[in-house]
Amino acid sequence: MSLISEMLSYSFLVRALIGGTLVSLCAALLGVSLVLKRYSMIGDGLSHVSFGALSVAVAFGWSPLGISIPVVTLAAFFLLRITENGRVKSDAAIAMFSAVSLAVGIVVTSLTTGMTTDVSSYMFGSILAMSRADVRLSVLLSVIVLFLYLVCYNKIFAVTFDESFARAAGVRVGFYNVLIAVLTAVTIVLGMRMMGAMLISSLIIFPALTAMRIFQSFRGVVICSGILAVIGFLTGLTVSYMCSIPAGASVVLVDMGIFLIFYLIGFVRQIR
Description:
Blueprint (H helix, E strand, L loop, with lengths): L1 H7 L2 H26 L5 H19 L3 H22 L4 H22 L5 H8 L7 H20 L1 H9 L1 H6 L4 H23 L5 H12 L5 H26 L3 H25 L1
């Protein structure tokens, strides 16, 4: 209790706890559909796009969120359109966007500000980076994502597993794909403040893969994924504070530990 009280006495930690928890929850819920649709690495690709946009924004003194959110949203939309047309495979398109965006960010940074604290925090994450505006945006994002899964659960389920059947059933597949892509883009931009461009994709991948070790139903995976994401983030942030290590790396290692535990549980259940 004394440790919790001490952590809550710092305003930046309170912001990190609230904002990071909500972003982790959103990333986990969206991640279930993305992993099942084989778009799990879109988080990595869009985080590099965000880094490129943030580097340009920092170099010219513009608002980082004001630039990065629309740019990453457009990138998510174009990735979706390219892969839907079938001309480029999803993994190739993500790798292409990722490499080019990261290169743009590095070039702009080297020619202007250099590796400043702001750029470094977006690259590797910083526990101090979460502002009040980020927290408010995180609350709005979480409300939208939770509303989407509560009200449109059956449609998301259909779009995730069988787009052809969903279209035949009258579901607007394109609309829901774009909506998931846009929400994922915003989640990634906000999550980069804490996790950094190098680690943000872990919030999307780990909870979904971990839940799938135990649960077989889509509903079970979604609920378990959300719970594990919150537990993993809170535990990782606490370990980060206690051991004075970067929050992003701490959260990833905790998520990896949870995955290994669930993997062993699933393995034992299969043997029996």
